[in-house]
Specification:
Layout (H helix, E strand, L loop, with lengths): L2 E4 L5 H4 L4 E5 L10 E6 L7 E15 H4 L3 H6 L5 H11 L9 E9 L12 H14 L3 H12 L6 H13 L3 H14 L4 H13 L3 H14 L4 H13 L3 H14 L4 H13 L3 H15 L6 H13 L3 H14 L4 H13 L3 H14 L4 H11 L3
Parallel strand pairs: 1-3
Antiparallel strand pairs: 2-5, 3-4, 4-5
Helix pairs in contact: 5-6, 6-7, 7-8, 7-9, 8-9, 9-10, 9-11, 10-11, 11-12, 12-13, 13-14, 14-15, 15-16, 16-17, 17-18, 17-19, 18-19
């Protein structure tokens, strides 16, 4: 029973597009008509069956000919023949002489009812792979897998929602909304999908429609912290700052230890020119956040609030903290420069604006502020 192990690079096995593989010539070579049992090459304890297949053709080829063939390399999942060569020299260190023999195996998948060995839930296997890829940020790969899983059950709400999430992360918001709408046809009482649709609408520059979708979610569960958070943000984007603030305050009654919400509250208070209250909110956010991973943007916003209150020395400390975490942020360097100007340290301010311009030469604000500093030397 010939067994083939595949790595995660070969995701097109799931869609059925990949029907070829290249392997070192075995002692007992494969022949047309042989049955293959194919598995993901994971840690042995977690190895998963992919499918069974029939060999449709076997071609024996020399290594020197493989490494010149870009088209063949792409069939095997590589960018080009050079990438294939590098990988094969690592995988087959003793079999990469010019005349070393390999076999190009072409195959076709058997439908599950034709399998001889253990049968699997193919949809569940593909979905699991898609979830792993999604969680690791490989959205182009995961959407391919979710789409393949949907072929088994086109009305699966979970898959339609996850496909929408993938499309949103790839910036394909109209397609994401279509996927969410299909999911909502099946499950119109799902608050999370209504909210996901709201986020996609907001990213499509349709904040009024986003608010309607978010409202549908909120009617289903008025205490859903995710829905409330996005409602506050959507209202802020619509310029409804007082309503946004009420939303964040309600959320903080439910989840008072969430630094992101305290930070969002600080942003709205800043928009309302309630600077002292904004500063208190940023301080609370930092207090909660510093217990884990500090956030550069949070330090920057606190610096802005302090600067607005005329507390330039304290704001400078905040900008320094922000730059420790994100030293390549040209805006943070500008803000530090402004604080230094307020303190009368024009030479240091020029250095800060120069750092900003090194990172982003197109930053006109840094250039104008630098010229203003130079006039004060």
């Amino acid at each position: 029973m010939p067994i083939l192990l595949f790595g995660s690079r070969h995701l097109e096995l799931i869609t059925g597009k990949k029907t070829t593989t290249i392997r070192k010539l075995w002692k007992n070579p494969l022949s047309k008509g042989d049955r293959l049992h194919c598995y993901w090459n994971l840690v042995s304890k977690e190895r998963e069956k992919l499918f069974e297949a029939e060999v449709t053709d076997v071609e024996v080829i020399k290594f020197k000919d493989i490494i010149k063939n870009d088209e063949l390399a792409k069939e095997e999942g590589f960018e080009n023949a050079a990438e294939l060569e590098a990988e094969f020299r690592k995988t087959y260190p003793d079999d990469t002489e010019d005349d070393s023999l390999f076999q190009i195996i072409r195959f076709k998948k058997y439908p599950i009812d034709k399998w001889e060995g253990e049968k699997i839930d193919e949809k569940a296997m593909i979905t699991k792979r898609a979830d792993i890829l999604f969680d690791s940020g490989r959205f182009r790969d995961s959407i391919m897998c979710y789409t393949a899983a949907l072929r088994h059950e086109p009305d699966d709400v979970y898959l339609l929602n996850k496909k929408g999430d993938n499309l949103s992360r790839l910036g394909k918001f109209d397609e994401a909304i279509e996927s969410y709408d299909k999911a909502l046809e099946m499950d119109p009482e799902n608050e999370f999908i209504w909210n996901n649709k709201a986020i996609a609408l907001l990213n499509s520059n349709k904040p009024e429609e986003a608010l309607k979708s978010n409202t549908r979610a909120l009617k289903l569960n008025e205490n859903n912290v995710v829905v409330l958070y996005w409602r506050g943000f959507i209202l802020e984007m619509l310029g409804q700052f007082e309503n946004s603030l009420k939303c964040y305050e309600k959320l903080l009654k439910i989840d008072p230890l969430n630094p992101d919400v305290w930070n969002a509250k600080g942003n709205v208070l800043t928009r309302l020119e309630r600077t002292e209250e904004a500063l208190a909110a940023y301080d609370k956010a930092l207090e909660l956040c510093l217990e884990s991973t500090p956030d550069a943007s949070m330090w920057n916003r606190k610096g802005n609030a302090l600067l607005e209150l005329g507390r330039a020395e304290e704001s400078l400390n905040c900008y320094n903290e922000a730059l420790k975490l994100d030293p390549d942020n040209d805006v943070f360097w500008i803000n530090k420069g402004v604080a230094l100007m307020e303190l009368g340290e024009f030479e240091k301010a020029v250095e800060s604006f120069n750092r900003s311009l090194l990172i982003n030469p197109a930053n006109d604000d840094a250039r104008v502020l630098k010229d203003e500093c130079l006039e004060n030397f």
